Amino acid sequence: MDAVSVFIRVRPQAGRTVLRCSGSNEVILDNTAYTFDHVGDEGTSQAAVFEAVGAPIVDACLGGYNGTIFAYGQTGAGKTHTMYGEMADADERGLTPRVLERLFAAIAGGAEGESQHCDCRCSLLEIYQEHIADLLDPPPPPEATRFGGVKTRDDRGGGDKKIHLREDAARGIVVEGVKEVAVASAEEALRALTDGLASRHVGSTLMNEASSRSHTVFTLNLQTVHVSAEGVRRVRRSQLHLVDLAGSERQKDTQASGVRLREACAINQSLSTLGNCIKALVSGQVRL
Questions:
Q1: Could you give all domains of the chain from N- to C-terminal order, each with its CATH number?
Q2: Residue 84 DSSP SS3
Q3: What is 105-174 written as a DSSP string?
Q4: CA distance 203 to 254
Q5: Is 102 within 8 Å of 185 (Cβ atoms)?
Q6: Which of 55, 76, 216, 228 has the CB geometry, 3.0–4.6 Å to 208, for a possible disulfide?
């Protein structure tokens, strides 16, 4: 499996058409063609995105490989729609609910001739202005909210719980202090995710009424124990990260100021750093 694959999804374009799709892996911008691993045009369904992106990574994780799916793009491009969609709508569900359904269906099915036990734990982190918050263990609401106050979008967000990144000799990079919730079904995992996302920082800009002002990382830690008919025991461990990034912004388009401008600066800086990391990976400067 390739270390990094790129899927381009073109959302419906208002007014003048900027991008054109040519085939299954090429887009044309200003008469210049760009090639990617997959390309989805304006009519590409949520199900088609999942089959191209989500299904192979789920299968690899079940085989013991770590995997990450993240949505990257300009603010208002449809990243959150692609990652989550309308979770209650069978056709408009995004990558995350479909990934969870496939994952737990495979766990329940198991392999023929083997007994299987799988332990799955999930966590949900928010990265807001370079600070990490645990959205599955947020602080209690302020008094005004608890006793009848109304909490607006701009007030939501993770708390001040101390979360630290550590490098472990055996496990690699780990997040110390994060709460993990045991889940046994897609429904339980989605419930934990939905409850956590209610505390995410979001806000309004000229380009997006409900703009994500932070990055969220939903992680599933899997440990599967297989016991064959002959009594041979195999243990597989893997992680699956589902990341919804905040969108890049230009101040002249969003007219952001004050807190919104500070948020945008932090978002753009972190996305630039992520781009440098990806460039280093695909150029062979560093290896996974």
A1: 1-42 (no CATH), 45-283 (3.40.850.10)
A2: coil
A3: HHHHH--TTEEEEEEEEEEEEEEETTEEEETTSPPPPPHHHHTTPPPPGGG--------EEEEETTTEEE
A4: 12
A5: no
A6: 76
Q: Enumerate residues 6+ apart whose C-beta is below 8 A from 275.
A: none
39, 57, 236 from 49: Cα distances, Å: 9, 12, 27
Give tens-digit pLDDT for 30-50: 889 999 999 998 889 999 999
Three-state SS at 51? helix
Q: Is the sign of the CA dihedral 1, 104, 180, 160 positive or negative? A: positive
The predicted model scores a pTM of: 0.81
What one-letter code names the amino acid at 70? Answer: F
> Tell me: the pLDDT tens digits for 80-120?
889 999 988 889 999 999 999 999 998 887 666 567 788 99
Q: Which residues of the chain have pLDDT under 70?
A: 1-2, 15-16, 110-114, 139-161, 203-211, 249-257, 260, 285-288
Cβ neighbour number for residue 65 with a 10 Å cutoff: 14
Cα 104–Cα 50–Cα 282 angle in degrees, nearest 5: 105
Number of helices (H) and strands (E), helices first, in the chain? 8, 15
